[in-house]
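Retry 2 of 3 after timeout on previous attempt. Resubmitting structure tokens to design endpoint.
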């Protein structure tokens, strides 16, 4: 297994990366502000489940396909961009009454969880990032490389979960104000739509 120094350095890097503005934490921020902190937590769980998929893929070498195959990379990129545009469409069409009338009602947590998974899994750049990032903290002299990468992936997921949950709690405090402000709901939905469009364009124009 990796040395303690390596684990500490990796955890610090992973936590820092979790707070750098990007598609995942922006997604959590917007959803938490719109629908409350618990929705943000379930989105976070979905995103972290997607990270499990990427961790296993990198550990067994499947992610290398996206680094060597332009067609595979493009296919997943198109799927991810299309999904983000769908979310943008839903955000632009959302009405303030939907939020206000949903106060006290159960949120579609399973849907939000699945939304987090789909967004993360359909982003090939996450797989490429893991493929480039995880091996830097492994060493053949420390045991099996696959086992080391699975362990490091687990640490990364834990750091991401803690960081994104904190983002959910902080952003979720905005939802109380939004429930009392129709204009605030409309504007944040529009901002959410713009964020999704921006993320879709960024993903669609990304390169390996």
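Retry 2 succeeded. Sequence:
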């Amino acid at each position: 297994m990796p040395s303690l120094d390596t684990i500490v350095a990796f955890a610090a890097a992973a936590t820092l990366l979790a707070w750098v503005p990007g598609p995942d934490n922006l997604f959590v921020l917007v959803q938490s502000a719109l629908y409350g902190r618990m929705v943000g937590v379930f989105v976070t769980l979905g995103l972290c489940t997607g990270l499990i998929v990427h961790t296993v893929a990198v550990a067994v070498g499947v992610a290398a396909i996206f680094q060597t195959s332009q067609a595979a990379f493009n296919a997943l990129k198109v799927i991810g961009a299309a999904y983000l545009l769908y979310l943008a469409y839903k955000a632009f069409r959302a009405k303030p009454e939907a939020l206000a009338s949903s106060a006290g009602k159960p949120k579609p947590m399973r849907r939000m969880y699945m939304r987090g998974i789909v967004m993360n899994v359909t982003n090939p750049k996450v797989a490429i990032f893991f493929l480039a990032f995880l091996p830097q903290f492994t060493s053949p002299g420390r045991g099996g490389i696959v086992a080391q990468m699975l362990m490091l992936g687990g640490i990364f997921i834990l750091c991401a979960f803690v960081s994104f949950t904190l983002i959910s709690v902080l952003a979720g405090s905005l939802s109380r104000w939004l429930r009392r402000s129709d204009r605030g709901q409309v504007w944040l939905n529009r901002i959410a739509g713009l964020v999704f469009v921006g993320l879709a364009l960024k993903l669609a124009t990304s390169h390996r």
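Attempt log closed. The chain has one domain: 4-10+23-204.
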